[in-house]
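Worked problem 6 (solution included).
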Amino acid sequence: MDPLQSTLLDYLSQVPDFRCARGQRFAWSYLLALVAAAVAAGQKHVVAMVDWAQAHRQELLDALGPHRPRLPSPATWRRVLLHIDMTALERQIAAYTAHLDQVDGTQGAISLRDGTVVRGQAVDGKDVCGASAHGQYTFLVSLVRHEGAYVLAQAAVARKTNEITAVPALLAGRDLTGTVTTMDALLTQRHIAQQILNQGGHYLMIIKQNQPTLYAAARLVFEEPPRPRHPGERLTGRTSDKAHGRWERRSLVTTTALNEYLTWPGNAQVLRRTCRRIHERTGLVETEITYGITSLPTALAGPAQLERIWRGHWTIENRLHYVRDETFGEDRCQVHTGTAPQALAALRNAVVSTLRFHGWSNLAAATRCYAAHPQRILRLIGATTL
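Solution. The predicted structure is:
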């Protein structure tokens, strides 16, 4: 497969067909094309997918080739989602989004002080609330590129475990050279930091009270003035902007004063970020202070670079989780049986990556467009004349 000429359906078609060969009425790629197109059209569950397909029956049949006399039954749609090989599906979607990420190149990457370029990637987990409400535990952890919000990998977290045990497997085998991995405080763990370093990458981790010694040291070093005996290097950067009816002023201070005391793997700088928000309409002032630790030394990253990496971390919340919940209705989706919740989440990731790659910034507008014009989304995913 030529990666520069591959479409989403090219990758999805590599997922093994679980059906018996005898009695098949529809080609596997045909079924996958319909499901992916329905997800891209914003259909949130199987009934909605079937209704949408029936409403655009002739357009879909015309676009998918002259030998398609009918659409699959609702039971067939359900079987595809319930029994698809999730390991293979996640692997193929990860390969597809990696292809998009490669084509995008280093657009939006961060230039360090020595002229080298790094790319940010965020790790975070998400509960599929609609499925969990029915007793089906579905918690997914994802690795997402900061710049394009491409989901580079996703895995389900096993019941009675959490993200801490799932992330090492998610990162295993990946070449992290030239990347900075960011994560929330729950994942600020020694073994994860060491794994990132072993695989050639850097990290930026948030410090909270789940690491009490680290948190106390970070608070203390910034509350006290630099000591003459152990001054370290202290740098400060400030940024501000106005959006959503509020002013936001940010200050990020870094220090190397703890480098010889902390035994944290790869520690090069500890930082404090202060964010002050002033709401114009009410005059309300909010101040948030957060601490972090990074393996990037001051020779590579000062406050300006670290601030950009820090803000890039929220890509996973603002440009992925929020979109999956609000635009694609993931939290309201009541699908909760078998592999269906995870399969739909994986397909939403693929669709979000595809739409962003093709220039859509307003994904709600994109889903409305493709819901009304199904032939367009079929062309986009490479599903015409199967």
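Discussion: The beta strands are 110-111, 117-127, 139-145, 151-156, 179-183, 202-207, 234-243, 246-255, 269-279, 285-294.
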